[in-house]
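Progress against Task 2.4 (sequence-to-structure conversion) is shown through the following example record, which the project officer requested during the mid-term review.
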Amino acid sequence: MSTPSIDFDAKRLWRVTIAIADIEPAIWRRLLLPEELNFAQLHEVIQAAFGWTDSHLHRFIVGGLVVGAPEFDEDGFNGHQTFNASEVFLRDLVLYALDEAKILYEYDFGDCWRHWISFDSQFPEQPGETYPQVVDGARSAPPEDVGGPPGYADFLKAWRNPKHREHKRMRTWAPRGFDPEAFDRDKTQKAIKSALRRCKGDYRFRLEA
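Structure tokens generated for the chain above:
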């Protein structure tokens, strides 16, 4: 039997699983990401995949490096140099031991939503397909400004219990039609496609400034 030929010039994909830390049952998304995606685009993908509104600061922690928007760290909040996310690409991770560690994406430093990005496998892109692609996922992301994982737990107790004194306020707080157990793959795919189209390879806020 002949050995299949390998096209080493083909563009590569990462299959990644992104999960919000400290939440049970888990809130997660599984995606196919092209390695030419930069980290500003990855930020837009994560925001769209979880339904966040990009209303707060964020950063990636890659090993000991901070990747994000340097203009938001002029006062040295991170304590490290912030590398420009639009200049760091997934293909650069060949220098990082992805099979031994995960990448951390932090969103909203007040609520402290931590997302762990696990790189499951890598393989060539398929002809005729467009990426990123949503493979699977589970549960809706929490509403913005709900108070991080502990606040979300309290939110759900009130949201689910009509007799809870905070029930009406939490129902008003949540977006219309909010369902903590819902995940719509097709809707998520459309949101990611729209976000990447609007960001034009960089952060959307830079285009809107």
